[in-house]
Structure formats: structure tokens, C-alpha cells
Amino acid sequence: SYQFTLGEKAAARGSAVLCGGELTTAVEGLDVGYYGTGTVWQSGGTVTLAKYLFIGRDAGSQGRYLLTGGEIALTNGNNHMYVGEYGNGALLQSNGVIRVRNWFTVSRRTGSSGVYRMAGGALTVQANLQLGEQPGSRARFEIVGTNSVIACNTLTVTTNATLRAELSADGVSAVAVQNQAALAGRLEVAV
What we know:
By secondary structure, this protein is mainly beta. The protein contains no helices and 20 strands. The protein is globular.
């Protein structure tokens, strides 16, 4: 398809369940909560997006993505993934794979909020993994236990972002940064 949107209008609510198969956009991408509320539950299959994945795109929107299996692939040169662009976004990952070739930002614009909670699975970002972009954004990345594989070229944690590590008996998963890390936000550690 050209584009797939859940919760396009302000009062709209949309949801999708993907247990297998494939969802592909040829030109644009996937909006989970554009002006309204959107939710995706993915336990299998592949989501391949030509350009973007927005979870909580515009001001006042609510987006939620639960990934328990399968794959999200944004692999062309001009793509990006935002958990909280102008709105409120949450990505909860307990398994599965996310591959992003360009930018992955949690809470991008002023007034947005984004939470990424990772308890398992894999995340690979070939460019920048960024927590918070503009002043007034609220980003939170929670890494739970040791069941996650996290790799990126660069990592940026701005002053308005929180990186939380929830330790298991074996510790917490590492974030493998290939090039550089800029850490200015808050670090929380929970046992």
C-alpha cells in the first residue's frame, strides 16, 4: 500500500493485529496515532516500511506499538522512526527485531513524549539512536534485564531524556555504540 494510518482524525481510534504475513508500504509508511489514537500488536510477520514509522505523530495523538515477535524493517536510505513526534508514543518490545537504517528518535518535538521499553529482542540502528531532540520533549528508554541486543552507530541522550536500566540477576543488556555517544540526560538504575 501507499500509506497505512491508525487513528487518523482527532477522535478516531484504530488498531491492528499482526500475527504473521507481511505489511508493506511502497512509498510512505505507518502512522500509529496520527491525530487520534492508534495501537498495533505484532507477534509475528514482517512490517516493511518505505519511509517512516510514527507512533504518536501529531499534537494530542496517542500511539502504542507492542512488539512480541516478528520484524519491523525500515531499510532504505531515507527513513526514520519516531516514538512521539509531536504526540505521545509508546513502544513496548519483549521480542522480535527492529531494523532502522537512518534515524530512530524517542520524543522528537517540543511537547511530545515517548517511551521505549525493551525487555527482549533486537534493535539495530545504522545511524543515530536519539533520546529527545528539541527542548521540551520528554524521552524515556527503559532496558529490562539481559535479553536484548541493542546496536547503533551513534547514541544521543539529551538533557530532557532518561535512560533507565532495570537489572536482573545477570545485569542488564549493553548498548553497543559503533561510533560515538553523547550522554547529557538522566540515568536511572533499578534492581
